User: Which sequence fits this backbone?
């Protein structure tokens, strides 16, 4: 990413390229601290709608949907922003979406595996 941001039209310095990682750090923290809460909200909605008020491990897989949407959306945004030389903020947002999905989705998968076994 540094070679892209240091070249025209962005002309970022090395320090400015490093600051682009702030978007990723913020989304990592949101995924770590809020990902479990988001998963619980989704799972509670599923349990309320199911007979017997039980949660099965497979029902936890529905919680993967936000990560499965944010990750590809971030990749598409990054590719589109880089290919069309959009403003740097679009690159930061795409990078943040990918970062969120790369932390959130494995956490849900591990929760499913632990619940399953």
Assistant:
């Amino acid at each position: 990413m540094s070679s892209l941001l240091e070249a025209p039209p962005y002309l970022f310095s090395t320090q400015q390229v490093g600051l682009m990682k702030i978007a990723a750090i913020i989304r990592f923290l949101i995924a770590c601290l809020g990902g479990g809460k988001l998963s619980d909200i989704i799972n509670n909605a599923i349990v309320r709608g199911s007979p017997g008020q039980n949660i099965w491990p497979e029902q936890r897989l529905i919680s993967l949907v936000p990560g499965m949407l944010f990750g590809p959306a971030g990749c598409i945004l990054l590719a589109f922003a880089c290919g069309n030389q959009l403003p740097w903020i679009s690159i930061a947002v795409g990078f943040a979406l990918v970062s969120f999905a790369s932390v959130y989705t494995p956490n849900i998968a591990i929760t499913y595996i632990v619940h399953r076994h």
Summary: The mean pLDDT is 88. DSSP finds five helices and no strands in the chain. The helical segments are 2-6, 14-19, 21-49, 65-83, 88-116.
